[in-house]
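Course assignment 3, question 2. Fill in each field.
Student: A.L.
Task: Predict the tertiary structure for the chain below.
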Amino acid sequence: MIFSLEALRARHGDSLLLHFGTPDKPDVVLIDGGPGGVYGDTLKPRLQAMLDGLRAMGRVGDEDALPLRLMMVSHIDDDHIGGLLGLTAELIDEKPTREPWVKPRSLWHNAFDDLAADSEGPREIDASPQPAKDATAVIASVGQGRRLRDDAESLDWSINEPFDGLVQAPEHGGQSVRLDTDTTLLVVSPRTDQIARLRKEWAEQLRKLKKKEASPAEVAEYLDESPYNLSSIVCLARQGERRMLLTGDARGDHVLDALDVAEATDDGKLHVDVLKLPHHGSIRNVEADFFERITADHYVISASGRDGNPEDQTLELIGAARKKEKFTIHLTYGEADGELHDRLFAVRDKLEAKNPNFTMHFRPDADLSMRIDLGDAPPV
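Answer field:
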């Protein structure tokens, strides 16, 4: 059986491929697309290579689209959604002359307009993508999420199947979705009670913002600090005894709470084969107890050094939690990136001095991605 996580070269963002199935019948989930430029230089070449491989295997015809079991947006920021908008824009532009060459069975995407369906939301505000530290980028992400939803409808993609509306977990127990006979996704966040609270808080805040005629920056500040970081989708991928925890940009304490409520922890703890760190290894999203309660054989961080990510303190917290245990940290950048290389190698040396069972792995600089295989390697 195939059970692999592939982290693409996604600059300061996230773009992941969850591979499963069998070598004769491989399948894949695309999770996020990185910022806009990632589509042309990484995501499109990788998807095209997969399609070419399936055609060579005789799994799809020469005119057939690349089948994706699922496409998922974990979080509506440009560094997750921009690359997917590049894909949908291209497919729509080509639609009059050729059939789309990528076809997901469903798109999982909680647009903010839908999350805040009980209020009017910031529909009148729409900006082009801005640098991550610019407050208006938060407003822009709301518009980007709306555009992706509209693009998906234009392409006749199913949205949020098999959920009735939003991708969400019940207040207790999590929501399991079967990908094939051996592989499932347990959605643990956002929960129905969290979304209800977000809607209530947004409606109250919107009234205040309108009354004071707030600037876009003030609206953005509230959105960025609103509950559950705009409700990042958090999933536990499971195949037999193997586990991968995919956290989006969720805060560490919210992930822990979600796992507890979903009854995925044992005495408050969970060990997984692969943990995709939230928010590119930022220390703002995690504390020591996150790594003490969630342990992994493989820690994956998608970050290019922008905004200081991954932060040294985050890496050191992992090392402190694991002590002398065997584990590997996988990084999408840093092999040959000047200042980032020097900083990360210094942290690596420091952790290796304390724990001879620790290793740090970097994506080879020329490669489009790096992959962790827990079973058979995907053939494409």
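Instructor remarks: The longest helix spans residues 38-57. Confidence is low (pLDDT under 50) at residues 121-135.
Grade: pending
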